[in-house]
């Protein structure tokens, strides 16, 4: 857990380290409509998931960008190959694990999540600043895509026949079991056959990851599960929360079904 997560106190003590780049992860960011009092951690740079770090050519939301797009977008943020990256979000733990996973997929291992995110930072009374100055010197970041960390629809379809991997769905209990309508009105209800449900809230407490002993309890039934784990959700974002938690407490090989239920519900027969 030490390398995956950093505390607000640690980050505050290391704000001035030149190799640290702090990324404020947002699902979408439009400076034209940003609130005047929109705040961030001092020096943080906006990681715009929807506009800069998603495949705009995909019919599905939040899909991984190409290796080249990810590399160029990182360089625009002044990120280097040597950068120590800390990602956070404004909900505690919500979209930051997605950014963490994306860096891992693109070959950059030196990345951590701020546990508790911006709420924890403000709770500790640390300084903030308004979102201004979004231009940075060009970095030399290099992306190296690792396909072994991602599953597409074909991989999920094949797994229905082979059952070589266990699919874990991070949506709520009611959504997983089709008891409520999906937020995206065009989607049918239900789940991927043979998948199991671990809602992402199960691994969190007050906007932070639960302690290791409690995470082990969440995954206790999977302790002897030797198969790779494939994490899914609505659109591949909250799946990364449960993936992170599993990496803290299990030794299985983990992947994300990038299209998640949004793709599967529209493409599967």
Keywords:
5-stranded parallel β-sheet; 269 residues; alpha/beta; 9 helices
Task: Describe the protein's architecture and organization.
By secondary structure, the chain is of the alpha/beta class. Helix content is 27%, strand content 17%. The protein has 9 helices and 14 strands. Helix 6 (173-176) links the parallel strand 9 (166-169) and strand 10 (196-197). Helix 3 (96-105) crosses helix 8 (239-249). The longest helix is centred in the C-terminal third of the chain and has 11 residues, at 239-249. The radius of gyration is 18 Å and the shape is globular.
Shape: globular
Helix content: 25-40%
Based on secondary structure, the structural category is alpha/beta
**What's the total number of strands?**
14
Radius of gyration over C-alpha positions, nearest whole angstrom: 18 Å
Average of pLDDT? 94
Indicate the proportion of strand residues: 15-25%
Unreliable residue runs: none
Order of helices and strands: EHEEEHEHEHEEHEHEEEHEHEH
